[in-house]
């Protein structure tokens, strides 16, 4: 098969389309003929040499894919050759084939084409596990989503609205805020002009900035609030005002999805299929796709992501 390999960490040009050995099908694995994958911010960190795949994962980038099952290994439950699926991966999505534990495989939701489906698993699993399983966002509560126009943000806005929350986003331009409002957000804050911590009080905050936003996030939490940090685009370290945290009886969580064991990913994936997919089937939640790029041109897709112009997901079509 062909895959995108990274011989040496560096700029987008480090991503090279090469012939590589086919994946081996292990016990409990599903082999997928990949129709598409999608770009995540984490793939850029992997390309730069800052985010190695966890042990046992394929060396190629790509945390999600869609495609058709070509083979199943022993002990696989619920999938058979010919099934149209999408999957949460530990790596290896930028390839023509990938082997993945069956627990991380999902049906393609109704009304979503096979290529579009590639952009759903990572964002759906991240938002479901953090906002709903960890932070337990409830109907009527306010969710603050930093980077509302990101791949993660566009799904978080739609899902939280569908579950009856008030949603506030931050974004870096009026155009991006307008798109978030179209997706259902109640309010948008242009972080280049305004300080979000002065403007919003939230029950739950989904944060991708890390250290830089920690003081503002704690300030913006309501009593009993839950801050979930999933990214460190503003650095790994920041000052935590424990006095404010204790007084508010608030909590700070940090998580990553990629390194979780298969069983934990399986619980998240089942939660997504049971709770998120029905909303996608019904058209309440739609994949937000910014561009479709041929997979062999993954370098171009990374340039688009790093330009920061995109809203939603950039797909890599096999
Ligand atoms: N921990 C996990 O398991 C996990 C899983 C998936 C993703 N993530 C993280 O989630 C984040 C989003 O991922 P993605 O793939 O969706 O990336 P993406 O589409 O490239 O989004 C990055 C976003 O960062 C926003 N941003 C930059 N500076 C900002 C600031 N000062 N305030 C608010 N937003 C700012 C950008 O918004 P503007 O363009 O509007 O400036 C952009 O929308 C990344 O940090 C990624 O590492 C974590």
Structure description:
- This protein is an alpha/beta fold.
- It folds into 2 domains: about 1-120 and about 260-315, Medium-chain alcohol dehydrogenases, catalytic domain (Quinone Oxidoreductase, Chain A, domain 1, Alpha-Beta Complex); about 125-255, Rossmann fold (3-Layer(aba) Sandwich), CATH 3.40.50.
- The protein contains 10 helices and 15 strands.
- The protein has helices spanning about 40-45, 120-135, 150-160, 175-180, 195-200, 215-220, 240-250, 260-275, 275-280, 300-305, and strands at about 1-5, 15-20, 30-40, 65-70, 85-90, 95-100, 105, 140-145, 165-170, 185-190, 200-205, 220-230, 250-255, 290-295, 315.
- The strands form 3 sheets. Strands 3, 4, 5, 6, 7, 14 and 15 form a 7-stranded mixed β-sheet that branches. A 6-stranded parallel β-sheet has the order 10-9-8-11-12-13. It has a two-stranded antiparallel sheet with strand order 1-2.
- Strand 14 (about 290-295), helix 10 and strand 15 form a beta-alpha-beta unit.
- Helix 2 (about 120-135) crosses helix 8 (about 260-275).
- It is globular.
- The mean pLDDT is about 95.
- Bound molecules: NADP nicotinamide-adenine-dinucleotide phosphate (NAP).
